[in-house]
Structures are given as C-alpha cells and as structure tokens.
Amino acid sequence: MVKFIVVRILQAIPTLFVIATLTFFMTRLAPGGPFDSEKNIPAEIKEKLEAHFGLEKPLHEQYFLYLGNLLQGDLGPSFKYMGWEVSELIAKAFPVSAQLGLFSLLIALVLGLPAGVVAALRKNSAYDYCLMTTAMLGICLPTFVMGPLLILLFSSWLGWLPPLGWYSFADMILPSLTLGLFYGAYIARLTRAGMLETLNQDYIRTARAKGASPIRVVLRHAIKGGLLPVVTFLGPAFAGLISGSFIIESIFFIPGLGRFFVTAAFNRDYTMVLGTVLFYACLIIILNLVVDLIQASLDPKSREP
Amino acid sequence: MSIESAKSKDFISEDPGGSSLWKDAWIRLRANRLATISLYFFIFISLLTILGPEILTSSYEDQDLNNTFAPPGKESLFGTDNLGRDLFARVLHGGRISLAVGFLATAVSLLIGVAYGMTSGYLGGKMDALMMRVVDILYSLPFTIFVILLMVLFGRNFILLFIAIGAVEWLTMARITRGQTLSLKQAEFIEAARALGYSHSRVLFRHILPNLLGPVIVYATLTVPAVMLLEAVLSFLGLGVQAPMSSWGSLIKEGSEKMEIAPWLIFFPGLFFSLTLLALNFLGDGLRDALDPKAAKD
Questions:
Q1: Does A148 touch chain B (CB under 8 A)?
Q2: Chain B residue closest in CA terms to A192
C-alpha cells in the first residue's frame, strides 16, 4: 500500500514537469506581455517593471530560474496584482471554489445515488424510464443553459433567490444546484449500470437464496460492487467540481479560482497562469490517487498483485 | 487448400445465407425505438441546418433596428435579437457551425487515436509500454484548462479550435483501439494471415482495422456531443466562434445576457442544442448495444 502511494507520487513528478514546461513556453510564445495592455505607460517604467520581474533575461534563463524557484515551493509574485504572491491569491480564491464543489457534490450524490439504485432494482419499469430519461436530460442540458434558466425562474420571475454573488448561504443555492443536477444525472446513470451488473452476480443470488431481505441484499451485498463505477467517475468529477467550473463562476460572478485563471490568462499574468495550472494538476493527481485507493478497498481484484 | 483460394477469403467468411455483422447491427438498432427516433431526429436537424440557411429569406447577419427584441410570431418564427436579427436563421446557422465543429474535431481525434492505438497495440512490447505511458501522462494533464489557455493566448482561431479539441479527445480513442488491436492480434485469423505471408500493412488495414471499427464507431458517436459541449463552453466564455458568426454556444451566451428582456433568445438555442446532444447520446447508446452486444449492460 505504502509502496503503491510512493510509486504514484514519484510518477507524478515527470507529469508535473511536463505541465510546467508546456505552460511556461505556451504563455511566453503567445503574443502580448503582462505590461502591454496598460495605456500611457512610459517606456522606461515598463522596462523597469520587466527588469523587476526578470522578464528582460533570455527565455531559457527565465525558465530555469522559474523551475528552481518551483523546486523550493515558490510560485513567484503575481504580475498583475502588485504586491501579491501567486500562492496567496490561490489560497484566497480556492476555498470559494472548493465550497461550491463540495455543495454541488453533496447535491449530486443525494439525488443521483438513490435514483440509480431505484432504477436498477425496477429495471425496465416506468420508474426506470422516467428516472433515466430525466438523467439523460440533466446531462444534455449543459450548465450554461441550466444556470441562466434557473436564474430566470428563481430570481427574475419568482424573486426567491439572488442571481449572483457569493456572500450568503442563499447565494450558494443556485450555483450549487446547477452543477449538482448535472453531476447527479451522471451519477444516477453510473449507479444504475453498476448495480445492474452486480445484481446479476452469483453471490447476490446466494444471498437471496439464503433468505436475506431485499433491503439487506441491496445495502449489505450489492451496493459495494455497484458503486465502483461511481467511485471511478468521482475522481475526475470531484477535480472538476473543486477546481470550480469556469462556466458556473462566470455565470454567477463567483470569485473562485476558475475566474482568476481565465482573467490571468487574458492579462498575460504569466506566474499566476503557471501557478494555477500546476495547482490544478496537483489537485487532479492527488484526487485520482485517493480514488484509486478507495477503489482498491472496494474491489480486491483491482489491487496490484 | 491453395494460397489463391485462401487469399480470396480475406475477411472472416460468412456462412451461406447468414447476415453480416453490420446487417445484424442495423436490425438490432432498428429494434431500439429510442435510438431509431434519435437517428431520424438527428438526420432532420442536420438537414435543417445544412439546407435551412440556403432556403430562408432572412440571413443570420441581416440587422433590422426597427424590429429589435420581437417575440416569436408570424414575422420571425423564433423572434429577433437586440439587433433585429432573425433568431431562426441564427439558430440554423449556429447549428451548422456547432455540428461542423463536432464532426470535424471528432474526425481529427479519430484519425490520431486510431493510428496511434493500432501502432501501439500491433507493435506491442517495449514500444507499446512507452507509447501508452505517454498517453497516461497526457491523460493526467488538466486538458480543459489547456484548451482554454490555448484559446485565450493565441486568439480565437477557428483552426486552433479543431486542433485543441482534437488533441484532447484522441486519448481515449487510442486506448480503445490499442486494447482491441492487442486482443485481435492473438486471434487465429490474424495468425493465419501472417502465416500466409501477408505484409504488416495488409494485416493491419485489411484484417485488424475492419474488426475494430465497431467500438471505434460507438465511441466516435459519443465523442461528437462531447466535442460540441466543449466548443459551446469555449464559445460561452467568449473564446470560440466570433460575431457575427454564431454557434449554439455563442447564441446561448448572447441569450443568457438578454434573457430578462427576451427569454426566447436563450430558450430556442438551448432547446436545439440540448435536443441534439440528447439524440446523439441515445444514438451512441443504441449503437453500442447493437454493435457490441457483450458490452450492452453498461
């Protein structure tokens, strides 16, 4: 187990290196620089700014300098938010995104799991068709359609909930619901598929033959195997949720990491872009590792020999 | 048996009077009502978006400032937007772009993925391990983020859009193809073909490729809606298709900004987009059940 974790962490290092390199040269090769957009900025001030951030050095020198700092855990200062370190900005924006992600995941699980289990138990019944068609609709109604529609219904027409912002609990309902419905629909489909496969297994028949009640068969025997595909999906889904959907954050004007990232890319805030991308990458790698560990505990077959 | 007569039976021979895999699959697909309806609906939408803009009298970019925010009615079927442009024409034109992006980007990913996967699976051994390691590394990159980054940094270039999306989507295709190739390579008819002295390229293209098309087609059908979704996300963030051109994603964005005055501006593009995605997903599911009965339980 420990060996598995160590190997995975070691494997992550080349991945992170590739990401850092790719992002570094992508941002630098793009037209425009961080101090180009401001009007009326005197040439000598611009030069001083660039010298201050080390932008006048040759590209490869900047690259090695950045990697060196990175090894010491230093993401560098932001070019646009003067006086702010990139790590400070991420620490400020990430909790907002994480909160949104956790709420949405909660909604998704509460809606998706029972729906999937019921659909699987009553396979090909009216329940099944209703639930699965709703789930399909949820998947095909993308968040950027669902979000505005929810705003239109609940804030413009009914006036129950605020349309944007991130200050009070009421602000969190609509964005979390938008994301949660989408992922919930996905989870419902995966749960159904997983449960159907498990319910056909011999050990379920054995449990039934031994006279276990239907509820016990589901909760004690079937659910463990049935949830496997959901757990596999949760890794990338959770990463997507936590890293804050860019779309949701821009629809509802939520000051999360996703919006910071897009703004930083527009502003050519090199260090901020690099920092955010690396942060996201680490997050995804860690979450995938956690998911693999959960999977191994649920399914003995997937454990490495 | 002479070599000549064996050569004439290049594919797995059909037993007399039997039906081919494709014919079987077609019959199974037709038995699936949801998939059949989806197929016809999709053909209908495609024809509408391809032919519609040619027939319509109003163009997607004709402005009529005396007739802004007109609600849906006789004059214009879906109403007009803030510049008095006919929404029906814009939705049809947007559908053209969305579908074109969906299919072209899927074709790009199909080409790269199948070529890469087949090479990796056929070569096997160390080369295979290396090539799949590359795919694994690419898999763990936060690709949506890279696509957004690429579009922001290098401008909203239509061709870049294809490359960016195609680069994301080929990975799964490569994995599926490689898996299929690996198991096909063990099959006796491939061994027979090799024993007959056929060249590698002949074995690859005439014996392996036709046999792995099933799963590849299924996955491609499911890739099209995924690509359309990604394009819409980019357009929604203002990074995709630029005005006065429109895609369903950019129309939904415009609609969401003006929905309080004119709800139809988000309703119709959203409806077309969602229904098309729905149809493609149902069709993909149906195709999977039809082409690959073993995997039908997912």
A1: yes
A2: B298
